[in-house]
Amino acid sequence: MSRRKDNYETSRWRQFMQWLAGEIDPLTAAKVGMIQEKAETLPDEKMERGKVSTLQATPGNESDEREAHSAAAQAEKAAGQAKSAMAAEPWLNQPSGESRGLRLYRRFYQVMSILLCMGIISVLLWTIAYLPIFGNAGNPDNNEVSARYIEKGLDETGAVNMVTGMILDYRAFDTFGESCVLFIASCCVLVLLRIDNDGGSESWKKRQTEANDRIFEPKNDIILQKCACVLVPVILVFGIYIILNGHLSPGGGFSGGAVLGSGLILYLNAFGFQKAERIFNGKIYQRITVSALTFYCLAKSYSFFTGANHLNSGIPLGTPGNILSSGLILPLNICVGLVVACTMYAFYTLFRKGGM
């Protein structure tokens, strides 16, 4: 049976295991030696200065004596603070050899970071070198893709708006990825800015009071509320119109969702969170977003599967120019618009209040 080495506590393996266990931080542990040396030498230096000043002080000079005593008191105070800091931070008591090892680890970490970045840059440059020359008339995007969108777009998608047909039919999964990016961004903001309820403590109540929307705004602003009563319905109806007519005219889910989000934000500013939460809260946000993304993924997965295998999907394209046409583009536009509107409203509420 192997025996533990005598220097196990100061070995690099022990240091590595402490780092894995989270007992030390390798990015800041390089400063351990400097902090320890400063904590050890600073009280000694002040004590020496206090002794010298005491020896130099003559009995007849009371000011020199007071200065010497104050220097000695400051040195003792600094020594006490250093001892308390060493007791509060046990990792400061590590030997200097271990700190040198951590400094070597930090240098290795920096070198590997630079090598990784250089490797990624090299791979990207190598990929770019194999791309076709920009502007060449023989490139596929100049002689095949755009011509297919223009010539066959209306027949294959049923959308009069070629841009909408492209982003929600030919490149629908790219748009799905963009919608997922919005959802992930809102989740990240929620994790960073949300004010959690820690049992109704005083600190939580204080944070909730500071986040109250009525502290920094006029209470019951009549002008703002009357204007909101007129503008909010118009804004919401206009946003719905942009979403529903995205396949017939300029517009779509992204622009229409932004308009809907601005209408919700205006209503929130005018009437406050208490009334806004009656029509839109965190649970509604989760249900709408998850349902929209799930329907989008399932619908386009089915459409792409049938199209790739030359099967009849059973999804009619409808009559170009009618509101209920273009196959899946209309419901997909609605899904994208709901995700964008929810994301805008969530961003605003999280940055303002720390919650929905």
Which terms summarize this structure?
356 residues; mainly alpha; 12 helices; 72% helix; 0% strand
Average pLDDT value?
76
Residue stretches low in confidence (pLDDT < 50, at least 5 long) are: 30-35, 51-61, 88-92
Largest sheet: none
Structural class: mainly alpha
Strand % is under 5%
Q: Using the alpha-carbon principal axes, give the shape.
A: flat
Summed up, the domain count is 2
What does this structure look like?
There is one protein chain. The chain is mainly α and 356 residues long. The chain has two domains: 8-123, no CATH class; 158-353, no CATH class. Helices cover 72% and strands 0% of the residues. It contains twelve helices and no strands. It has helices at residues 12-20, 32-56, 62-88, 96-129, 140-157, 162-170, 172-193, 202-210, 222-244, 253-279, 282-308, 329-353.
